[in-house]
Design brief:
0% strand
Length: 381
Amino acid sequence: MFAVFLFQIPVYMPLSKDTRINAVNIGLMIISCIAAFIMPFEVFLFAYAVMGPLHYLTEISWLHDRQYFTKGKYDHIVLWVIGVLIVLESLAVRNGWNWPFESDFGNKIIFVALAGSLLMVFVKNVLIKIFGLLFVLLISNVIFQPDKRDGFTFFIGALLPTLIHVYVFTGFFMLYGALKSRSKSGLWSVVVFIICPILLYVLFQNKTFVPITQYGQDAYKADGDGFFSTNLSFLTEMFDVKFPQMKDAQGNLLYYQETGEPAYDYSNAANVVFHSQAGILLMRFIAFAYTYHYLNWFSKTEIIRWHKVPKSRFIAVIILWVVSLALYGYNYGLGLRWLYFLSFCHVLLEFPLNMVSITGIGKEVSSIYKSGFKGRLAAAK
């Protein structure tokens, strides 16, 4: 009788490594979500300054050891060169240098990096890749025109290197991993990842838990080098926030002579970005997306194994990270300028991996459709 009773006691099996990591990540999403509710601006600034540099350095190191997921040994050089050109363009604009290219140049080469990554991932023949890149460059000259503003231009120039990179591509990476390993807990983590921004937008829309501090405002602006103008463009393009058009002394509407576009009055921009409902809701999503993007990377160290590098390289990474922390602590704008090259290059260098994730999702979905969710694992056994 006692033996029968023992067999009826439920036995709790230890969680698998995959389930444990996904459970931790769901917890990190919830923490990121709560933090984004409370102090969205400061949480983002902290995550970007503290976790961001270590993420750039370790991910670039990890990508390098995997040949950047490209077919050719030197394909990544194209992406590095594009990163250098983008930084040079930024410096030229900031310092008033005579930059030989037009205003659409940055969008063109980001598009070349994105489309060219498909060639790098799937084409091995060097000549085909060269002609393919030239063809992509030709297409970019047709799509992008100086001072032309449309939805696709905004997507490539503003969204792709920022929110698409930290949220959409992170979601693709998570989904690909869950499908490839046939992990139900991984799929649940993707569901939570999608739900969190919805909650950030729907709940407490008119509630500001902790208003942004003066330091937060100054750091966010960073003397023109910060994220203020990016938020402003997001609000005008995505939230349809309107600013009044400027007028002269006679009450006539003013336009820019170079482009013929209206000149708007942004004197109230700081209040809109830092204190309006739209500004707070946008910042919640930005804070969540960036904070979890970094936490996701570090929480999966055991799987990704980015720390398995030569000791000299690991020491160099730690030294550069500490220097970056010191620069951010001394002056936030100085830290941003110091790491602009690495931060943008890590976005470009990840494009081939993004292509692998997107195409991999398609392959895994097709496999599941044909063989069922457990079909591949059963075949492997």
